């Protein structure tokens, strides 16, 4: 039996998570986290790849767009260049008309204008100013004023809006950055882009960096093969002023807002910055930056492109979040499931344990309080457990009984051997049988044994459980009842039923072995008078004493039986001769005629005895008894107190 400590220990263990469930839960947790990490990593990598591709697409497009745009601008200038180169004299009105007719603003948005700046030798400056004033430019002058080696002057700038009007007469050649580009255009005969300048059209508001694109205009018919020839043939420059922010904003209107575009003139730095799509913004570096050198009309630009936060394709970020939420949800569901499962199992186990504990307590009480003996044995029937009932039954100490083979302590008619009991139990067969114990105090007891094999979970016998009930009293009662049914209650000698059976048995034996025997029929004389004179109970006493005297007159192999009243029969199985039978009858008669002292009364009786022999007077019980009875009556008739041999 489990003790209380083991029960407490078991129930305590149920409150905790079993190692298996903990392992599974941790495994699920780890797997979910790993799965989330893998998906997250893959999405991140994919996102990075896609972002890089996305970025690369924009980068290539930006560079291409700038290049193409400036090719277009050069084409525009070539048109003006061609127009002016074909005229003998520069007629500003012809150029104006051409430019207005061209309506370049419609197709080339972002251009501040297209103009012509005339090269003026110092000697021709005054006549030029006069001519311009004649043309209607009242306060016209070439500015800044002052003596120089040569002058240039903007005489046409379309569209002729207020801003561009501010530039008329300006000598760009007087300013170093512009002059460098103008010289380069003149030297190469090609378009030349200037470095960073501030256009004279600028006011104090929204001042932007500017650049100028020049195309030289040479005099018609003059040779322009060499640099010297080109210098000699120079008439001026058609040019385009650009306000960089306006130009680039228009150019990059289709690019994402999260893409920072910075353009520098030749080298990176605040002083050389031509354009910044996000001026004043200082975001953390995203890592995606490209710096590209492009050459536009002989001038190097450095185009820096940087992906700002938010540039990554939105869809992937959302997808990653969604997957993460799903995986976290899955993790939560799995964890909750394990938790619930474990709690449920713990609850069931606790309930079962509680039930088992109560059940065990009940059975423990039953076993301990049982009047019957309950024992457990090992595979060799050696006692491993005995209950108090068994100790009480057999009278011994538990310590001296444990380890003893149980069947050593009992005996019984037709009892199985030790090996037979074990073989039967190993066969799974239990049995009920009676055995006799000799108690410690020497008394005998009869026990009803019920044995049953105790199996392990795999069908092998690992012992036996045996119940023993003390049935000694019941056996005694059975014996008493059986005795009462076959014996005379007053005298204790076999009654009529029993005697007839004995007689039948004797007849069988005698017939089989040709034996002879004698039968006496004894009737007391005048017994009624004893009853009448001294009372019935004295009559009883007389009957008891008479039986004792008769039993004292016969052998132990002879049987005395009471037929009823004061009639008795005596079976003499070993008496074959008349003479011998008459001697026994005489002994009985003599014994009975002796005086009885009963409760102080002197009582004198006698007896009449009939004698028959087997097989002489009959071969069955009825005949023999009837003829013995008749012989007894003959004796009565002969005067009583005598015997009469049938005949
Ligand atoms: N006390 C006592 N009397 C019994 C018992 N059984 C029968 N009797 C009596 O025994 C007497 C037997 O009567 P009988 O045999 O007819 O009379 P008897 O006086 O013996 O006469 P004879 O046999 O002719 O000598 C009756 O009075 C019965 O009532 C018994 O168990 N106890």
Automatic annotation (TrEMBL):
Coarse class of the protein's main subcellular location: membrane
Coiled-coil regions, chain positions: none
Alphabetical UniProt keywords: Membrane, Transmembrane, Transmembrane helix
SUPFAM superfamilies: Nucleotide cyclase, PYP-like sensor domain (PAS domain)
Record domain PAC: where: 431-483
GGDEF domain sequence ranges: 515-647
Transmembrane segment boundaries: 20-40, 322-341
Chain ranges of the PAS domain: 359-429
Localization annotation: Membrane
Pfam family, one: CHASE
Signal peptide location: none
Tagged with keyword Transmembrane helix: yes
Domain spans labelled CHASE: 86-254
CDD domains to which the protein is assigned, alphabetical: GGDEF, PAS
NCBIfam families, per the entry: GGDEF (TIGR00254), sensory_box (TIGR00229)
Name of the protein: Diguanylate cyclase
